[in-house]
Amino acid sequence: MLWFLWKSRNKLIFERKWTPPDAVFWQARSHALETHFALNSAMLASPRTPRWVCWQPPTQPFLKLNTDGSRNHQSGRACAGGLICDHLGRWVHGFTVNIGFTSSFLAELWGCHEGLKLAHSLQLQHLILEMDSLMAIQLIQTRQVEKGPFSVLLTDILVLLDAFSNCIVRHTLSKGNSAADFMASLGHKSPLGTTFYQNPPVGISMLMHGDTIGTMFLRP
């Protein structure tokens, strides 16, 4: 909390930018929760062993939604993005969302939220949701919503999940989420708000081809 108060004080003195006290409080609380989840995950995790990782296509009738968040640590601006693919790894639809100033964890949740909204707009019924944020996955799977900066967003995510006939939520490693990472990074070049892509954007084809043929990466 003291560090966030110090940051807001410096911003007021050197940048002439005032941060409301409640905003400082929720920034500090959000950071504390992120740290809590991260430390718990590290304590519960078993020692890492080398592992081959790849994107795996869904089995019919499922489609797969991969989402990711991205935050520029210098500017503080955050974005998210994702894509939906079929059982052959073909592009169905994609999106980016330029969020503005927020935490990396909230960026992950925004990516999940906007991806699920997109899937609903396409009237999909059977969906696999994959993210490389273990903290976000654990929060969604426990379905426990506590008052905080992301409580409304998390509640909306749970409502969206329940509206599918069948939705599987699972964690993947970052190497198995590279196309979603590309879309999240693309969000930094997009206007504020959500941008939809009916066709694959330039630059993602090689990543998707690698996913389709089952290119594997060794995670140390």
UniProtKB/TrEMBL annotation:
One Pfam family hit: RVT_3
Domain (RNase H type-1) ranges: 66-185
Top-level taxon in the UniProt lineage: Eukaryota
Gene Ontology molecular function, alphabetical: nucleic acid binding; RNA-DNA hybrid ribonuclease activity
PANTHER family assigned to the protein according to its UniProt record, in alphabetical order: OS05G0353850 PROTEIN, PUTATIVE-RELATED
Name recorded for this polypeptide: RNase H type-1 domain-containing protein
Organism: Rubroshorea leprosula
